[in-house]
Specification:
Elements (H helix, E strand, L loop, with lengths): L6 E3 H5 L4 H6 L4 E3 L8 H5 L5 H10 L3 H10 L1 H5 L1 E2 H11 L11 E2 L3
Antiparallel strand pairs: 1-2, 3-4
Helix pairs in contact: 4-5, 4-7
Length: 108
């Protein structure tokens, strides 16, 4: 079977090689979304705000590329749902501030 980078086993995700550790874990397959391993073209296939979440996570430690993504997709980032911004903040700890009364955030 062809290996897919988005469907990894637990052992593959954790790079478990120690036989003692392997005996303590079940090696089940995981449906994984790993933004850092995805190409921009793969991320662009998403039509929901998950697209912006994945882009922000992917480039959160690369300010130059993140700035470019924010500029290129400015309209979509200006209308980002509050829940999407909450996910971005929880994963990247980016310090995004917004009015919690608003449904959309326009200052990402």
């Amino acid at each position: 079977m062809k290996k897919n980078k988005f469907f990894l086993s637990l052992f593959e995700m954790m790079d478990v090689s120690d036989p003692e550790v392997r005996t303590c874990l079940n090696d089940y397959r995981v449906h994984l979304i790993a933004p850092a391993q995805m190409t921009d073209e793969e991320i662009m296939k998403f039509q929901s705000s998950l697209r912006e979440v994945l882009f922000f996570i992917k480039y959160s430690k690369d300010w130059e590329n993140l700035s470019s993504i924010l500029e290129t997709n400015e309209e979509r980032f200006r209308k980002l749902e509050r829940r999407a911004v909450d996910v971005i903040e929880a994963i990247t700890n980016s310090g995004i501030k917004y009015d919690e009364e608003e449904e959309a955030v326009d200052n990402v």
